[in-house]
Description:
homodimer; TIM Barrel; nine-stranded mixed sheet; 21 strands; globular; eight-stranded parallel beta barrel; Lyase, Ornithine Decarboxylase, Chain A, domain 1; alpha/beta; about 25% strand
Amino acid sequence: MEKVFEFLTPERAFKLAKTVGTPTYIYDEGELCHAAKDVLNFPHAFGFKARYAIKANPNAYILRLFDKLGLHFDASSGYEAERAMLVGINPEKIQITAQEYPKNLKYLLEKGVLFNATSCLQLEMFGNEFPGKEVSIRVNPGIGSGHNNRTNVGGLSSSFGIWHEWIPEVKKIAEKYGLTVTKLHTHIGSGSDPKTWEKVVNLSLNAVKKFPHVHTLNLGGGYKIARTATEKSTDLLVIGLTVKKAFETFYKETGRKLDLEIEPGTYLVAKAGILLSKIIDKVSTGKDGYTFLKLDTGMNDMTRTTLYGAIHPVKIYPANGILPKEKETVVVVGHCCESGDIFTPVPGDPEGILPIELPKSRVGDLLAFGVAGAYCASMSLINYNSFPQIPEVLIALDGKFILLRKRQSLQDMIALECEEVLDLT
Amino acid sequence: MEKVFEFLTPERAFKLAKTVGTPTYIYDEGELCHAAKDVLNFPHAFGFKARYAIKANPNAYILRLFDKLGLHFDASSGYEAERAMLVGINPEKIQITAQEYPKNLKYLLEKGVLFNATSCLQLEMFGNEFPGKEVSIRVNPGIGSGHNNRTNVGGLSSSFGIWHEWIPEVKKIAEKYGLTVTKLHTHIGSGSDPKTWEKVVNLSLNAVKKFPHVHTLNLGGGYKIARTATEKSTDLLVIGLTVKKAFETFYKETGRKLDLEIEPGTYLVAKAGILLSKIIDKVSTGKDGYTFLKLDTGMNDMTRTTLYGAIHPVKIYPANGILPKEKETVVVVGHCCESGDIFTPVPGDPEGILPIELPKSRVGDLLAFGVAGAYCASMSLINYNSFPQIPEVLIALDGKFILLRKRQSLQDMIALECEEVLDLT
């Protein structure tokens, strides 16, 4: 996995550590562009749009870059849609697929944002507020393939989307409010297996058959990235050709040319990110115990390891510039006062400890986690143990370093605390 | 567990939902005072201090209240100590026990903050910066009893504190810098078993014997609160008497009267907190599937359920004021686009789903999670899916409602985003 650290040369790492300080997130614009190009080349039979799943990394610069490169956007909440608009994204390029019906949906729709109803109640609320409109619906086709239960978003145990058996109910609601269902969305998790994709596409196309006005099928999820040597990336070309073929067959059978939409998050940003930290301590629990490398970052900055047992590749940047040949077996731990703050768990089991072999390091060396661009800065236990939220920096195409988020101060952290008597009369 | 909802009467719940909106944290000053009194009555043989573990809930009002009631403070980072000082806590009442040696320790110590060295390197750094001073050390006595691996902070697999076998090394460092070890700290996790406590106290007292100038033994951790009917609270009186007896025996044997310190976090705030949310949707995956109650809160506001499979008691507040006799079996889920956003997992297994029986509810009813005062607001995936950080409200002793934290705006959320070219020359 050395390749994922290529953009962070030792020279850059130490310059950034000196200027911005550690810990910090570092993104590579080249890798972001590369991933966007990959996604925009997704094979398709007819029309095509790729939507970036903003929740993976909602930093303003990244949204604007993807906008310029031709991506559209998927917002997981009304807030997320508004956030994207606030930083300059054209509302017409944003579609909301949310578990929570946005309170200000009228405002958002007037601006041009698109809405994808994910439950019968959402469809009913939408119909009531906007009778006679076109609408998209999310359907749970009854299959899922997440890499663990917590990222599996299809099937019986998933609350996401309208369960396929309720399609007659959808039709009733649509008729009641004069709605036309023109887009259909399914989402099956983060799997990389083409066979699962084939099944889902066919299930989804069967659902499309029930809605004569649907012109677009959105296939969310499943654009997985390998974070370690043993994990498998989704091969977009393989998956894409499967999907393309199914759309062509559907056309032959029905005469309907469907547009395709996909919604990658991880795929677009994961590899472009690194979390850079410093080794601040090295402790041991004796000959029957472990050697621990302690970092100045932790589960407060990057939570997915302690949350899922997700493994990120590690690279040491020795302070003296010389990587020793000698190895050591260590447990890498964070700086929070919580024993779960471990970066080397048993893969998929955050309660297990699995020491890893690294070049022998010293306090003061830098330690980087690779493939940390997705669900890292955006999904973290911000301010746990009162550590300030960390900065985000971009290495631009021209080699310049651009600060994308300032390090939080203690004053920022407590700015919203107050002592205000409420009038409840 | 009905008792934990007593302070949130239906009238108060609906008033707050109307004024502050949902979701919101609600704290009860009476319950905070009650818990503080309990802790301050901890049996002890000689001198005694109780330190509140700030990380459990660092809200300024709560810190100031506990300060007035006579508690001292335990800070898990240099930032946390400074945060407490910023809101008015006397630095001399704060002790830092951190995995990360604070960069500004000199400033903090000059103000009066106390320091507890948790590794040989920390002791060395302290000695180097402050030769000749008195110091506290944290020792890992080689035993632990957390309720799961992730909250077990003693034993071979814990990096916290100086492993007991390195005490000779501690003595060398102390001698080198003329330091006097006057306080000793052990911390064994969150167990409620008195037998474990007896072992730990005796192991800790054995360590004290090796340091003739130690006048205070700090026994951290272990002050557990039952969050559900099947969990067990730590009985402070039982534990306290065990500890008191051991201190008295130690005095008889050695002639040394030790002061006792304890550091509860959860015990002081857990029961005083409720997370109040609204039921926004109800979906089903058919007769072989589940019925899901969907809330306007989620893993972004209260993360410990999806993190540990931690169970919180649930209460429905019907919008029409009438609790139906009819029950239903439901999975309670959050509003994040992530299948792990489930509030009813298998206890201790966040990947499992365990539907619970609740009075039949309707969209628009309020749903409250009890025992949500500790590690809830302070340990959450803030801004995941771009949901704003939620408010905190206190019900004061006089019945007034006091806003302790304002709801975050989208502007607050992105205030630190920027696009600033860095000069790295």
